[in-house]
Amino acid sequence: MSFVGGGSDLPAFYKTAPGAVLSTTIDKYVYVSINPKFDGGIRLAYSQTEEVASLDQIQHRLFRAALETMGIKGGVEVTTTADIPSRGTGLGSSSSFTVGLLNAVNAYKGLNSSAEWLAATASEIEIERCGAPIGKQDQYAAAYGGLNLITFNPEGSVSVEPLSIRPEILTELFSKLVVFYTGVTRSASDILARQSEQVTDDSKSRAQLGRMVELAYVLRDELCTGRLDSFGEILRENWSLKKGLASGISNGDIDRWHDVAIAAGAEGGKLLGAGSGGFLAFFAPPDLHDAIEKAVGLRRVAFNFEPAGSEILLSLRKNNEQK
What we know:
Elements: E1 2-4, H1 11-14, E2 19-24, E3 30-36, E4 42-45, E5 49-52, H2 61-69, E6 76-82, H3 93-108, E7 111-112, H4 115-129, H5 137-144, E8 147-152, E9 158-162, H6 167-175, E10 177-181, H7 189-201, H8 203-224, H9 231-243, H10 252-263, E11 268-271, E12 279-283, H11 289-296, E13 299-301, E14 321-322
Parallel strand pairs: 4-6, 7-14
Antiparallel strand pairs: 1-2, 2-8, 3-6, 4-5, 8-9, 10-12, 10-13, 11-12
Protein name: D,D-heptose 7-phosphate kinase
Family: Belongs to the GHMP kinase family.
Keywords: ATP-binding, Kinase, Nucleotide-binding, Transferase
């Protein structure tokens, strides 16, 4: 769940000025299991099922690229399930899947995976091998976990700064967040491609993203000093800036849901992810959450803070090497 700075993790921006995103992981998960397949083929079970004889027959691009990268040529059965819709929700599902798949395959091979290796390799697979016009924030969030300021440097390196926040402030923060599902899923690729083009060609868009990066640092300082009073205002400014980056980020329905939530007492809010659908998050006193839910008329989604990144829950193979 990205709060501020989203979009500054695209190379169109960070190759000339550092980007920064303040985000958190939440207790919604993608589960990946892998097991030997007796006949030497490959069986993949996700929202669809594929049973093939070789890697080049796999239709799912991320599956194919990840297994190629990891040197798995056959003889495996991989199953994935998720707590939320697997595509187009704005909560980093595809990157969480890729990170989890890499972690599971390494454990299957008897290897441990560092968070940095998982994030960097997942980014390479999604962006370079599969050609997705996306940024790196979701891969690093899923691999590291927790509430972080993630910085994207012009030479391509990424740094992850866990925020040092008093437990009572973290509890208060999450008690004031309320999230709704719009019921709309969408591919982020087209929106992000337009955003990258706009940022490359338009100085105003670059200035807007620059301000969003500033807000990421402002919000970090506010949270680390125990102040939540400006959280809603920062969300509102960030969302206003984000909407102006490219066409399709918002639409009439999203604007209406946002405005009625603000009228019902939300101090700020934003659409999570690239735009056009997925989940809406608002910051408001807990005693107003029911009124906001009634006003927007959308499905409310319960969630909480998750401090951990990708983890191996069960492995029947001995880990013997650090990757």
